[in-house]
Each structure stands twice: as C-alpha cells, then as structure tokens.
Amino acid sequence: MRIATTGRRAAPTRRRAPGPVRVRPGPGAAGPPCRSVVAVVTYRRPRQLAVLLDAVLPQVGDVQPPARVLVVDNDPQGGARAVTDARAGLGIDYVHEPRPGLAAVRNRALDAARGTGARVVVFVDDDEVPQPGWLAALVAMWERTGADAVAGPSRKVLPQPVDRWVQASGFFLPRPGRTHGAPVPAAASHNLLLDLDRLRDRGLRFDERFGLTGGEDTMLTLALTAAGGTILWCEDALVLDPVPRHRAQRGWVLAREHRTGCTWSTVHLSLARGLREGVSARAGLTALGAALVARGSLLALVGRVGGSDVRSARGDREVARGTGVVRGAWGGEVEEYARR
Length: 340
Description:
Blueprint: E1 2-5, E2 36-42, H1 46-56, E3 68-73, H2 81-85, E4 92-96, H3 102-115, E5 120-125, E6 129-130, H4 134-145, E7 149-151, E8 154-157, H5 164-169, E9 191-195, H6 196-202, H7 216-226, E10 231-233, E11 239-242, H8 250-271, H9 274-306, H10 309-329, E12 332-335
Parallel strand pairs: 2-3, 2-5, 3-4, 7-10, 8-11
Antiparallel strand pairs: 1-12, 5-9, 6-11, 7-9
Helix pairs in contact: 7-8, 8-9, 8-10, 9-10
C-alpha cells in the first residue's frame, strides 16, 4: 500500500456526461431494452468472476423483463473476456475499460447500462457470491418504494482457522443497527442498486478523484442523500464475500481501517461548501480522529493489561482508523487500488 500526501483536492468540476459507450453485446442481445443491468466490475480475478457469473445468471429471469449482465473489465489485457466468452449465449455483455481506478470503471458501467436502455444498474463485486433471490429482492424494493437506491448486506466468509486477533477484532462481522426497509445515509457499491434516471437528474457520477483511494461509492451515495435522495436497506438481498487468507490478517485489517478513516475525511472535505465550511470540517475531523486515537489507545491498553483480546483488538482498530481520519483531514491519501 502506497501513501502519498497532498494538499486539499481541488473542488470538483461539473462535466457533461460522456456519450454512449460501445458495448460488445453477447449473443441474444437483440430485443427490447432491458430495465435492469447487473454490472460486475472486475480486475484480474477470472476464477472469482466465473463463480460470480454462475451465481448471477440463474437469477436474471427472476425480474421482468429479464436483466442483462454487464462485465466491465479493468485489466489492460482484457483478461475477463475469456470468462464471458465461455458463457456465450447467456446474456452477458462485455466492456473493456483499461483506465485504472474504481471510479473510472464504475462510470463506464453507468454509461454502458444507460446504453442498453436500462432504468436501474445493480453493482456487485467480482469476488462475491449472490445468494438465491438476491436480484429479485433489490428490484422488488425499488419497484415497491420508488427509492433512488437500494443496498444489501455482504456477509464475510473467513478462511479457517480464523486468526485469533482477527476474530476478536470483529472487523468482518456484519454492521449492526440496519433495519430492512429503513433509509441509510450512504452505502458501499459492492451490493447496490442505483436508479439511473435519478442519478442523471441530479448530475451525479462516481468521482474519479477517488479512483485509486476508494471511497467513490461513499462520495456518490452521500451526495445522493444530501440532494434529497433515498437509499433503502434490503436485508433479503444477501451476497457472500469469501475473504482471502492474506486479508484475514491483523496487518491488512489495520491498514484497511487506516485507509477507510483517511478516505472518510477526504470525502467530507470534498462535500464541504466554501472556505468556512471546509475549515469547520477539517477541525471537526481532526478532533474526531484524535478522539478515536485516544479512546482506542486506552481500550487497547486496558485489554492487554486485563487479558481481553476483544478490547485489545478493537482498540487497535480505533487507533488505526483515527490516525487515518487525521491524515485525511490534512491532505493525506492511501492509494490502496494503485496498480503495482
């Protein structure tokens, strides 16, 4: 992971959305426009992509008209093409987007989905496994409520045996406090339905300044709710997320907490309007980060002295996140998704 320190990012400029994207349609693409597209953005994960597609394809007929599946390949060599070709005739469209960064490839997915005439796009990560009824649950909630977006849970599946510190940290546990059908202020894009018309009407796209750091989904969904949009939680739209062994380690968890804290600050600074609001946001984020470091340090110390793995590990997490919040408040960036 590379850390680069910069000054505050320039304010975003409002750009005209690009024209239609060339989509290489799979066989069977002819016919009336579909209403929903499942968009899978992928980068050099052919085995996981194959598992995902085999879980998604049986569900496309669960919604009417049937959904199409769109694979947007971020590999400069186009390695995912072989995976989609192996499933020719099953309603998969392929788009190649070689520009690095999550935001660039997600925006390409938005444009390609619009090009099919779809009303909604459903994002899912290439290493996840949607469970039966996943797609129908997301689309049904959107149809029933008219929400601008619908988000669902991702249940982590850890390799066994689980590292003792990782187990105690609770990092991979589901986030508590979310209720089926209730609004949420923001959402991750790994299991997210977006109403394309509502995004267009508000001039919203994924911010490409966050392409290498992550946080483009937080930025988009916070901007959506700030503009009056509604994101609803759909507990029934479950995906499983198998965690690779190299991520189920203390070092990776702490690095991700640090990066998340850093990105959180950058997003909120970017949403601040004007100098006064920006100064206030920076001060508040700095205070928040310092408080997390102080509280986490105390919790970790109490845990180590008292022999509590849970307190020790969760204190370590708070310290990592707090240092990231402070770093981000003062221009720091963690480019977790930079190509090596």
